[in-house]
Amino acid sequence: MSGLQGVGLLLLWGSVCLWLPGLARGALLISGDQKDLQEQRGAAKSLQKRSANEAMVEVYSVKVDCTVTSRFAHTVMTSKALNKANYSQEIFFEVDLPKTAFITNFSMEIDGQVYVGEVKEKEKAKKQYEKAVSSGSTAGLVKASGRKMEKFSVSVNIAAESNITFILTHEELLQRKLGRYEILTRVKPKQRIQEFQIVTNIYEPKGLSDVDAHASFLSNELLPLVEKTVTDNKAHISFSPTMEEQRNCPDCEGTLIDGDFVVTYDVKRAKSLWDIQIVNGYFVHFFAPLDLPRVPKNVVFVIDRSGSMTMTKMTQTREAMLAILKDLHEDDHFAIIQFDNRIEMWKESLTKATKENVDEAMTYVRNINSRSATDINEAVLTGVRMLAKDRQQGNLPERSSDMIILLTDGMPNSGEFDTGRIQSNVQSAIGGNMSLFCLGFGNDVDYSFLDVLSKQNQGIARRIFEGSDAALQLQGFYEEVASPLLLDVDLRYPDNAVDSLTTNHYSQLFNGSEIVVAGRLTDNDLDNFMVEVFAQGFDEEYKVQGQASAEDWNVLYPDEDYIFGDFTERLWAYLSIQQLLGTSKSGTPDEKSNATAKALEMSLQYSFVTPLTSMVVIKPETEDEQGSPLIADKLTEEQRQQAEKVAYKPYAAQPPSYAYHQTPTYLVDGDPHFLIELPERDDALCFNINNKPGTIFNLVRDPIPGILVNGEIIGEKMIPPDGQINTYFWRFGIVHQSLGVRLEVNTQDIVVLQDGKQVKLPWSDAASVKGTNVDLLLTKDRSLTVTLKDSVKFVILLHKVWAKHPYHRDYLGFYTLDSHLLSPLVHGLLGQFYHGIEYEVSELRQGEVQEKPDATMYVKGQELNVTRGWQRDFRKDVKNGENVPCWFVHSNGTGLIDGDATDYVVSGLFKTV
Ligand SMILES: *[C@@H]1O[C@H](CO)[C@@H](O)[C@H](O)[C@H]1NC(C)=O
Ligand SMILES: *[C@@H]1O[C@H](CO)[C@@H](O)[C@H](O)[C@H]1NC(C)=O
Ligand SMILES: *[C@@H]1O[C@H](CO)[C@@H](O)[C@H](O)[C@H]1NC(C)=O
Ligand SMILES: *[C@@H]1O[C@H](CO)[C@@H](O)[C@H](O)[C@H]1NC(C)=O
Ligand SMILES: *[C@@H]1O[C@H](CO)[C@@H](O)[C@H](O)[C@H]1NC(C)=O
Ligand SMILES: *[C@@H]1O[C@H](CO)[C@@H](O)[C@H](O)[C@H]1NC(C)=O
Ligand SMILES: *[C@@H]1O[C@H](CO)[C@@H](O)[C@H](O)[C@H]1NC(C)=O
Question: Where's the VWFA domain (predicted)?
Fold first, then answer.
């Protein structure tokens, strides 16, 4: 991947899409050696400079200071660096912040001069940004970083022997999930730091419980380096290892600090005690009562089994479903609907979750397999009708929660296609009577569609990332909604005492979560602050009423210098903006524009970087560069998803995904579709070769052991009605000279010639032939596995077509399974990839077909236009194949393959030229 620096960076306004090759994920980082952050401008110049002076930037201080006041987290990240060189150079600053947080301030101090960022309307910032770009300057960047974080990075040119300080502040309301709050700090300093510190102070007036701190990079012996002091209502957690303690091993210069530092806690909850904070004219009410019995639920699982659900995704879905079914409570009711272009119900109505019923459902789930297209509209409506009917007929407990969980990995492409119409169909069918939760599996879902669909129906949407832990993600989500405690929760405050309330009606309260409502007190009349909560409980109405009183934070925390002053107000603003941003997508047109305007106004007033605003700081002028704006943005979930599509699987540090087979596979199958699967990269490349029927191509050639694989293509019986002329491989010649083996495989039979003896095997037999140098395993009418001793293993698949098909004929597919023993000289259309291929892909853009974006591939010193598509691997499922997403290289693979496709044409099945 070296030699490609300077090509990975791209910022598109509005949709930030980036892929920085090899970029260290994570972290708080400053360095003078950040090759990945090359700008197009002057890349060569600064590269030279940098490689000569890697050690000339010293980062001498990194501090992360987080203060949590009643769940509201305020984090300041400070980094200081010194340019030790006797000339100016570029210094890079990178931090990761939680995607749920808003940046609220950014500043740089250079030579005693402070440059402070300002939050501006995004459109205005964009104008400034465009000017900067046209004058050749750089801008700050924000991009997705893993599942939970986003990365902010800037670079500044610093004079010789000068110091720089970067300070970034962000804020967020911590959300309670499965009974705890989490504060996540990602640190990746890349060098040992003189002064390194992560400090977290938590203030919770009602008291703290289960305070825990751990880090992915700290072994048990090193955990004592984390100091933890917890008193009744305050926790202080500090981690400040010395230079010596930061070493990754006794004699190493490297740092062990590299990963996530996580603090978790919960708040003590006592029965019927309010948790309401009132400070400076704003109140916040946290509602999560203790010891409530769960309310039974009626849940319809609507499961996508369309063709795009790969074998892996389907397996993970089944695995998750089995665990979820096992966890159903006896008094729950459930139904399962699987859909592609057709809808299939396990049963016509909901079923009580008795042991026998669950067992029966599990058997059913084990048999769900992927098939055809995606009819989301009909599938969800079927679920709604089923629930509504059972509810109407009194088949369900009166007090119980009705929900639909939709799992899909694609866009609607069967039945109703129009996402707007699906949304209105579903919304009017549900009519506020049940919740719809949408799980979008992988990168090919239309997440904004699912997000709006669930927001319109009292639910939430969640992305499920492809990867080996997908089943756990599905179960994790289910657990969050598995135990409703209250339904129709209404939180009421006196009309004449409060205004600007955030959402105060929720259709459910789930076990382990929390409802938060904030608002402004109109006349600060605390004597009259009556609070009421009404809801439907397990077997009775839930109702509490009482007077809230303000706690005096100065009395609670007499020794603290921290000004708690405005945290309730900022919390209120944060929550209001988040909710307005939701309405700005899911409301009526009028609501949308009002919500957008209000969210923008509040973002500007409270200095929050939201999807509607940007942080702009003017970079100082230097001898090399004129002053220019640096800009920080906020990504929406759709933009994150878009960016991930480009990078495809950017999470190098996450467990490897099973989406691909575990060894590299090189294959040609179907209308000569070449597919190079690269499991270490979780990616694949593909191309087609077109030529006249009868043409013979060389696929593999290795002069050292004398291996040759050639294949001949054949056309259709006649030109199909769509005029598309396809060709297929129908005959392969395989020679291994030093082993004295020669094979001819066509769609009829297999002829093996070894040591002068010839054996003919028809495809209609099953056979296993073990020779001294070659093993053949023939599965009747299906596949032939060829193992050449100490050399290579191939599989040839037979695709049998209905004999009377008007134009298709039988054809073959060729798969290389093990090629690592071949020599470095191995070549051919497939063979040239056996020893790996280096490439980078970036600059995702709209392609001809919406689901198939185009991108630029840098490979073999060239830039190619490629298209994201998929091709099929038929090894596991000979009939339908398994979709493998891949980068498609156009024009007969030109640019990816060495030379031209015609260079691989040979004159005979066993000929080398
Ligand atoms: C910078 O330092 C190098 C040696 O470290 C020296 O050769 C060079 O003359 C210095 N340049 C300036 C401009 O001082
Ligand atoms: C932003 O940071 C600068 C420098 O640290 C500070 O002077 C300023 O008060 C901060 N602004 C806000 C709104 O906190
Ligand atoms: C940079 O900061 C360090 C640490 O605060 C200080 O010792 C040093 O004098 C500073 N150097 C310059 C050139 O300002
Ligand atoms: C929602 O439930 C109410 C009360 O049961 C019922 O009257 C109404 O028709 C339902 N709405 C829809 C769209 O089914
Ligand atoms: C949107 O704002 C306008 C002007 O403030 C107001 O008249 C209108 O009622 C609002 N619409 C909604 C749906 O809130
Ligand atoms: C790639 O496509 C773009 C337009 O989509 C075109 O301008 C460019 O020339 C193409 N590049 C190559 C190498 O084909
Ligand atoms: C692929 O190669 C064949 C044979 O040389 C040629 O006819 C065809 O136009 C090529 N296709 C593309 C898209 O370049």
Answer: 298-481
In a domain, 575, yes or no: no
Contacts of 190 (CB under 8 A, 6+ apart): 24, 29, 31, 255
Distance CA 240, CA 263 (A): 15
Q: What angle do CA 375, 661, 413 make, to 5 degrees?
A: 10
Q: Give the number of the atom of ligand 3 that is nearest the alpha carbon of residue 162.
A: 13
Identify the band that residue 644 occupies on the pLDDT scale cut at 50, 70 and 90. Answer: low
* Of residues 846 and 475, more confidently modeled: 475
Q: Which residue has the higher pLDDT, 909 or 85?
A: 909
- For 224-246, the pLDDT digits (tens) are 889 999 998 899 999 999 998 88
Which residue's entry shows tokens 């339904």?
Answer: 487
**393-404, pLDDT tens digit by residue?**
999 998 899 999
In terms of residue numbers, what domain contains 165? 3-267+609-640
Q: Do 237 and 342 fall within a single domain?
A: no
- Neighbour count for residue 113 (Cβ, 10 Å): 8
- Point out the ligand nearest to the CA of residue 592: 5
Buried-state track 351-364, b at ≥16 Cβ within 10 A, e below 16: bbbeeebbeebeeb
Nearest residue to 466 via CA among 323, 324, 314: 314
User: Which domain-ending residue is among 460, 482, 504?
Assistant: 482
DSSP assigned state of 621: P
Which atom of ligand 6 is nearest to 863's Cα? 13
Using CA atoms, how far residue 352 sits from 222, 324, 437, 657, in Å, is 50, 15, 21, 36
Q: Is any ligand 6 atom within 6 A of the Cβ of residue 863? A: yes
Find the 599 Cα to ligand 5 centroid distance in Å: 14
60 and 163 inside one domain: yes
CA of 651 to the centre of ligand 4 (A): 45
With respect to residue 502, please indicate whether it lies within any of the assigned structural domains.
Answer: no
Query: For residues 10 and 863, is the Cβ–Cβ distance under 8 A?
Result: no
716-725 pLDDT per residue, tens: 887 777 667 7
pLDDT given at position 271: 54
Give the per-residue pLDDT at 444.
77
Question: With 60 as the cut, is the pLDDT of residue 134 above it?
Answer: no
Q: Please identify, among 482, 505, 521, the residue that sits at the C-terminal boundary of a domain.
A: 482
Does ligand 4 have an atom closer than 6 angstroms to the CB of 433?
yes
User: Do residues 800 and 781 lie in contact, with contact meaning Cβ atoms separated by under 8 Å?
Assistant: yes
Distances (CA, A) of 417 to 341, 373, 379, 479, 899: 11, 11, 13, 31, 43
Amino acid at 230: V
Total Cβ atoms within 10 A of residue 848: 8
The pTM score is: 0.67
pLDDT of residue 53: 45
Query: What is the band of 22 on the pLDDT scale with cuts at 50, 70, 90?
Result: very low
Q: Is the CB of 405 under 6 A from ligand 3?
A: no
Lowest mean pLDDT among 15-29, 813-827, 874-888: 15-29
Inform me whether the pLDDT recorded for 596 exceeds 90.
yes
- Together in a domain, 675 and 615: no
Does residue 64 lie in a domain region? yes
Cα 627 from Cα 693, distance rounded (Å): 63
Residue 478 lies in a domain: yes
**Tokens 């046209």, residue located:** 134
Element (H, E) at 735: strand 727-736
Residues in contact with 212: Cβ distance below 8 Å, sequence separation at least 6, in sequence order:
263, 264, 265
Rounding to the nearest 10 degrees, give the CA dihedral for residues 903, 908, 910, 911: -50
Domain count, the chain: 3
Structure tokens at 488: 């129709």
Report the alpha-carbon distance of residue 890 to residue 852 in Å, rounded.
13
Question: Is the pLDDT at 640 greater than 60, yes or no?
Answer: yes
Q: Which residue has the higher pLDDT, 819 or 425?
A: 425
Helix (H) or strand (E) holding 209: strand 208-215
**Residue 46 predicted with pLDDT over 50:** no
Identify the H or E element spanning 388: helix 376-392
Among 885, 833, 842, 886, smallest CA distance to 865 is for 842
